[in-house]
Structures are given as C-alpha cells and as structure tokens.
C-alpha cells in the first residue's frame, strides 16, 4: 500500500469562517501534526460547494496505514472532541482515507 492522505472535509457556517480558519491554523492542524504521525498537510477551500456555508478540505499526509491507525486510536478522539466542543454543528466534518496510487 502506498502513502495515505487523510482528508477531512468540513462545512463551516459562513459567520464563523474567519474564526474557524484562524483556530484551525493556530491550534487544530498543529495539534494533529504534533502527533508525529503525518509528514505534511494542506488546507483547501472547496469551490464547488458554497450552499449553507463554506466547505474546506484539510489533507494530512501519512507514510503508511499503520501510522494512520495509531493516530486514529491514540489521538483522534481527543482532537475531534475539542473541535466539536468549540464549534459543534456549526462546523460539521466527514473524513475520507485515500491511498496515493
């Protein structure tokens, strides 16, 4: 299996977009990266979905599936809880795991 991209797509209410982006850049993404299990990341705005808010895709690059599984088990629950506790239903996320071919 090749390298892994962990893609988190988040639909953010328009009125909190600036605050959410700032928090993601200053807090959440560094928290994910500080686990040491990802080699890089990318934050993108989804251009073809602007109904009911703004959609973003956060991509984290992982060398292998084992590192991702460790992240999911040891770190993801607390990081996701912090995000939900701060933004709740105003920033809804869904996750996709991709293999680079």
What does this molecule look like?
This protein is α+β, with helices and mostly antiparallel strands and 101 residues long. It has one domain: 2-Layer Sandwich (Alpha-Beta Plaits). 39% of the residues lie in helices and 34% in strands. The protein contains three helices and four strands. A four-stranded antiparallel sheet has the order 2-3-1-4. Strand 2 and strand 3 form a beta hairpin. Helix 1 packs antiparallel against helix 3. The chain is globular, with a radius of gyration of 13 Å.
Chart the SSEs and their pairings.
Layout: E1 4-12, H1 17-33, E2 40-46, E3 54-62, H2 65-74, H3 76-87, E4 91-99
Antiparallel strand pairs: 1-3, 1-4, 2-3
Helix pairs in contact: 1-3
Report the order of strands and helices: EHEEHHE
**Average pLDDT rating:** 94
Beginning-to-end CA distance, first to last residue:
9 Å
* Uncertain regions spanning at least 5 consecutive residues: none
CATH architecture: 2-Layer Sandwich
> How would you classify the helix and strand content by structural class?
alpha+beta
Q: Strand content of the residues, in percent? A: 25-35%
